[in-house]
Amino acid sequence: MKLKTSITLSEDLLKAIGRIASKGESRSETIERLLRDGLRARARQAADQRDLVLLNRHADRLNAEADDVLGYQVDV
User: Among candidates 18, 24, 26, which has minimal Cα distance to 2?
Assistant: First the structure.
């Protein structure tokens, strides 16, 4: 369900929105698309940061396991 709201934007921002709007897309649709894209990117960045923290927390153990596996490989 869509709800109507009112926001105030600067003139230069409205012009930029008009320039990047897809053909036949209203300003409201453009703003909604850009907000969704931005929120998705922000969520992805937060998930990537959580993954990085987790990997760094276990890096020594993971690297030791990789070294162990590589130790079993031999050149033929």
Answer: 26
Closest CA to 32 of 7, 69, 68, 62: 7
Q: What is the pLDDT of residues 2-26, one digit of tens each?
A: 999 999 999 999 999 999 999 999 9
The whole-number average pLDDT for the span 61-72 is: 90
Task: Give dist(CA 16, CA 67) in Å, integer.
Answer: 52
Domain residue spans in the chain?
12-71
> Is the predicted pLDDT of residue 33 greater than 70, yes or no?
yes
**C-alpha pair distances (Å), 43 with each of 26, 37, 39:** 26, 10, 6
CA triple 31-44-40, angle to 5 deg: 20
Classified as helix, coil or strand, 46 is helix
- What pLDDT sits at residue 52? 96
